[in-house]
Write a structure and sequence with these properties.
23% strand; elongated
Length: 87
């Protein structure tokens, strides 16, 4: 991890298209301004983690649904023991 010291109104460049500027420094916080192209997503860490968790959950549900559909399409017995016939 690169660690830098910046003062109010100073900035850091990431590549040629992203600028992170220190806007305000308070008691226990720093307010940042970020300029980046629209196609680059910028999230607070806690929001990013929530999105990642939701994506993992959705992937699991999708995988389970695909397995269930495969069982139904093959005409095999369901986990509850019932067989489904495809007409």
């Amino acid at each position: 991890m690169l660690v830098l010291t910046r003062r109010r109104d100073q900035s850091v460049r990431i590549g040629s298209t992203i600028e992170v500027r220190v806007l305000e420094i308070g008691n226990g916080y720093v307010r940042l301004g970020i300029s980046a192209p629209r196609h680059i997503s910028i999230y607070r860490e806690e929001i990013y983690r929530r999105i990642q968790d939701e994506n993992r959950e959705a992937k699991e549900v999708s995988r389970e649904a695909a397995e269930h559909a495969s069982v139904l399409l093959s005409g095999q017995a369901e986990p509850d023991g019932e067989a489904h016939q495809i007409l």
